[in-house]
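Example (one chain per record):
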Amino acid sequence: MTDRLRPPALNPSTLPAEERQPYPAPWDKALAGKFRTVLGDALGLTQFGVGLTRLQPGAVSALRHWHTGEDEFIYIVSGEPTLVCDSGEQQLKAGHVAGFPAGSGDGHRLENRTESDAVFIEVGTRAHSDRVHYTEDDLILEKTVRPPDRRFTRRDGSAY
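Predicted structure:
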């Protein structure tokens, strides 16, 4: 019996995990220890994005943020990350889920405060345009799908 899969199935371990630093300085090292494998693109999905993310001990998923145009959903696969949001903090475990509706204004992120990796699946809509507000930082992300554009500004609209 072979372990080879053929479309529409795939083994996520065959895809690269990327450690990406998308933020401008001084936040350009904020995501050290976060590794994301993009699953949705590899499967040809266009309506929503799917990623498999691993947080090493001490790593965070993002700067605390919320979206005006995109819903977000997470499913904890393994580990025990702490969910930090406006209503407080809570430790999540394998099998737990959380959702963040577009426009909620609930700044959120996951933090791995344990000594083991935390792994989660993240799903998000792919809105044609979105504004991401970073609740603890003077930072806004404006993004559009067509034409593809990602631009960081300060809250007053000035560019980084």
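Caption: The chain is about 0% helix and 40% strand.
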